[in-house]
Amino acid sequence: MNQVTPRPRVLLCATTTGYQTRAFDEAASRLGVDLVLATDRCDRLDDPWRDRAIPVRFHDEAVSTASVLRALQGTRLDGVLAVGDRPVVLAALVAEARRLSWHSVAGARASRDKRRFRACQGEAGLAAPWSTTVPAGQVTLPAGVSYPCVVKPLVLSGSRGVIRANDAAELGAALARVGALLSAPDVRELRDEAADTIQVEGYVTGDEFAVEGLMDRGRLHVLAIFDKPDPLTGPYFEETVYLTPTARTRAQALAIIPAVTRTAHAAGLWHGPVHAECRVSMADVVVLEVAARPIGGLCARALAFDGPRGDRVPLEQVLLAQAAEIGPPCWRLSRAAAGVMMVPIPRSGLLRGVTGEDDARAVPLVTEVTVTAKVDQRLVALPEGASYLGFIFAEGDDDRAVLAALRAAHARLVFQIDPVIDVRASCG
Fold it and tell me: pTM of the prediction?
């Protein structure tokens, strides 16, 4: 009697607001993997998202870990993954309890806490900016600060709350602004103790790059190095274009890859996806962060890999295959050049309409234009904001042509943004 081989099962820890969950579900179907979700969904309603997810609260790690282990008790589990910064610790705790290969718990914690991460770099003797922390709301400036410096919350991501200060006056204003951001309701809802602390660190000069990779039991496999062609010099650090590969990424790869590898080891990141940000000046590489997760949001659509049957394999399928230990790895990008533009919010206000989407899609080399902001949505620009207007994707044989296509498509989009009227102020 033939024995049926059980399907691999992978746990995906994610927020309910994440863009990538559906992409992982589709990848699981293609691979024949059972995907189990653990999300911060409501635990009082009967499966409100119709995804059979295990309800968790990322701020309550002990209870959430126990809930996941109880739900999976007596069942097979082959691997874990996490999408977004907050879920990575839960994934590490479950992996540790089930003795699965993944990042260490300490590494997951360091990857989402800037103070812990800088401490790991310092202990390993790695290049890093000087840093100090102050309580949110502190009015006195920290001692020993040199300029320019950068103010950033310990826990927020996506350049939210990151501000450059060139002198004491700007530092005081930046600390006050970030302190106000950390008291916002959506931040307080995180229930994260680190949200009460602000980090001040040295400004690092140089070109900025992002690295998308997979740690495979300590060895880094680089999936892509992204060039960031728009200068990120402040006062805010809104990321717009990711482009790969470029002449700059090829030239810097020999310095970037070992620097990211050493930093991942120092932080305790051992097995699973990593997303790193670094600055390169001449041959000097300073790793700003290494996260225990893949690239966020819809940006993952910029990456596709050559599959074993000549097909295009999305990033989520590569990650699931590693977690479930299925088949040969797919490392090679399927196109000569690819890029994504995260459409920035030019000013805060109410979105009243969008035109030019079809014209933007008609630009040669553009493969997708997706406006994620909704009409009548209140938009918040950086440094307080946490989202984009949408995403533009392009592919081609030359990185310069891809970049030109992204810019041309963006120029054809017109967003009508009305100012928000403070009724209380006007009624005096």
Answer: 0.92
